[in-house]
């Protein structure tokens, strides 16, 4: 008896599947003709089982089979008709194991599908087993201990228990916004549904629309086949839109339509497609300021922030720094097979006093490096020398003693340009370089002053190099 459905994607050069249909009763089955699919297509790889139904030595089919080993991490199964025994032999030589020769092994194939369906059901049951106490511990490990922790914890629990409610997570870069979004999804009622993450600032705007909403074949020059968008892939689950403050006004309008009508339209398409994905969004930007400058839509903001959770910077959570020390020592000791017995007092005092401009991400990276460098089992301040060097840049400006001329010019940047020979893009790049000089090349501080994300800064500098 089949206890649960698995998603089976079948690829073949033939269109008649009646011979195997009886073995797939009760399952979710999608058929693809080999000429209309590529194995890296998201339509295909999201199947629990991918079946190649091979009836000949058709070259395009075998080309897809070879490529499947790179792109398909799911179960790969091969059905071969007994009139072509060479095909089965060739597949075995390529290292594939699940090969069924039809019609002799038809029922054996059906038994395999039933077994995989049962395993799938048991795995889903195992995944869903967690207690409220376990969930709270996970949330506390991200939120830390502060006067606002209980309020934040209550908001995170409410968000996880109500899978249709949109959530807005605020906080500086590296404060754990992505970790919290994952936890809200994984400890909620739709934990077994898809979780799709996209960093809006990491994808060029002309491509972002097609990534979010997909496109139809022929929508543009390189659109040789239909592609599902990330909203479709996240259907009935969660889509996490990181750096939501970087969205253009054009895409904000389209996102608002998704929120209001629960439909999307692929690029080049004419049909509205219903989607049901909860949106968790995050940003380090001040959305109120962006709205005041007409750079972020007010109606979109109120749709996104049904529940708002703001994560404090690590420099404001010194007790949390100490609690993360043991977490990261354990994580990287196991990862790199090291035995770290302790961390000395001088190093702890430094870690507590450092301002951590990169927040939890910077702390985690610092511990990974320190554990790798440690050979005697005791972490010392010497193992954190890379951030010790940066501390001078991180000292608050009011504590620095400056000469009169330095005091006069410290908060100003002067750029002299020939206006007839310089465009707006070059002015922006000149300003970026001057800000980087002012902060000693520290990109973490620079992006805060510039009001952009770190990926966007890196992209602008890379584009300048290419030019």
Task: Describe the fold and architecture.
The structure is a single chain. The protein is built from 22 helices and 16 strands. The chain has helices at 18-21, 42-45, 59-71, 85-93, 106-127, 132-143, 149-161, 177-186, 205-213, 230-233, 249-261, 287-292, 298-304, 318-335, 345-353, 359-373, 385-388, 391-394, 404-409, 424-438, 443-450, 454-466, and strands at residues 7-12, 28-33, 49-54, 75-81, 99-102, 167-170, 195-199, 214-215, 227-228, 238-242, 263-264, 273-274, 278-283, 307-310, 342-343, 378-379. The chain has four domains: 7-127, Flavodoxin domain (Rossmann fold, 3-Layer(aba) Sandwich); 132-310, Rossmann fold; 314-393, Helicase, Ruva Protein, domain 3, CATH 1.10.8.60; 401-466, Orthogonal Bundle (Arc Repressor Mutant, subunit A), CATH 1.10.10. β3, α3 (59-71) and β4 form a beta-alpha-beta unit. The protein is an alpha/beta fold and 467 residues long. The chain has a five-stranded parallel sheet with strand order 2-1-3-4-5, sandwiched between helices. It has a five-stranded parallel sheet with strand order 7-10-13-6-14. A two-stranded antiparallel ribbon has the order 8-9. The longest helix is centred in the first third of the chain and has 22 residues, at 106-127. The radius of gyration is 27 Å and the shape is globular. Helices cover 47% and strands 14% of the residues. Residues 392-410 have low confidence and may be disordered.
């Amino acid at each position: 008896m089949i206890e649960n459905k698995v998603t089976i994607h079948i690829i073949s050069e033939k269109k008649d599947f009646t011979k195997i249909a009886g073995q797939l009763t009760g399952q979710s089955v999608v058929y693809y003709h080999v000429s209309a699919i590529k194995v890296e297509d998201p339509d295909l790889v999201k199947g629990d089982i991918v079946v190649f139904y091979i009836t000949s030595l058709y070259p395009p089919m075998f080309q897809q089979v070879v490529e499947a080993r790179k792109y398909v991490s799911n179960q790969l199964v091969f059905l071969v008709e007994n009139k072509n025994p060479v095909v089965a032999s060739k597949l075995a030589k390529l290292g594939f194991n699940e090969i069924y020769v039809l019609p002799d092994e038809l029922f054996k194939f059906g038994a395999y599908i039933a077994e995989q369906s049962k395993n799938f059901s048991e795995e889903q049951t195992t995944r869903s087993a967690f207690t409220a106490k376990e969930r709270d511990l996970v949330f506390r490990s991200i939120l830390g201990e502060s006067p606002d922790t209980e309020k934040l914890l209550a908001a995170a629990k409410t968000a996880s228990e109500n899978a249709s409610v949109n959530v807005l997570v605020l906080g500086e870069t590296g404060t754990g916004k992505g970790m919290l979004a994952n936890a809200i999804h994984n400890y909620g009622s739709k934990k077994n549904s898809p979780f799709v993450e996209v960093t809006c600032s990491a994808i060029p705007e002309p491509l972002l629309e097609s990534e979010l909403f997909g496109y139809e074949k022929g929508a543009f020059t390189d659109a040789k086949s239909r592609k599902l968008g990330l909203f479709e892939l996240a259907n009935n689950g969660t889509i996490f839109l990181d750096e939501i403050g970087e969205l253009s006004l054009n895409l904000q309008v389209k996102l608002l339509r998704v929120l209001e009508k629960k439909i999307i339209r692929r690029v080049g398409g004419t049909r509205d497609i219903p989607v049901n994905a909860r949106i968790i969004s995050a940003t380090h930007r001040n959305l109120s300021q962006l709205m005041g400058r007409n750079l972020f839509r007010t109606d979109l903001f109120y749709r996104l922030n049904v529940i708002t959770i703001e994560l404090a910077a690590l420099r404001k959570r010194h007790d949390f720094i100490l609690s993360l020390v043991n977490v990261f020592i354990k994580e990287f000791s196991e990862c790199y097979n090291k035995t770290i017995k302790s961390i000395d007092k001088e190093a702890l005092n430094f870690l507590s006093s450092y301002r951590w401009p990169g927040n939890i991400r910077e702390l985690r990276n610092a511990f990974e490096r320190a554990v790798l460098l440690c050979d005697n089992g005791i972490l010392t301040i010497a193992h954190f020398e890379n951030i010790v060097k940066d501390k001078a840049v991180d000292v608050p400006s009011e504590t620095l003693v400056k000469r009169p001329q330095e005091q006069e010019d410290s908060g100003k940047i002067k750029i002299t340009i020939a206006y007839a020979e310089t465009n707006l893009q070059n002015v922006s790049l000149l300003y970026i370089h001057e800000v980087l000089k002012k902060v000693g090349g520290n990109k973490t501080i620079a992006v805060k002053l510039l009001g952009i994300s770190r990926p966007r800064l890196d992209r602008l500098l890379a584009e300048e190099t290419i030019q």
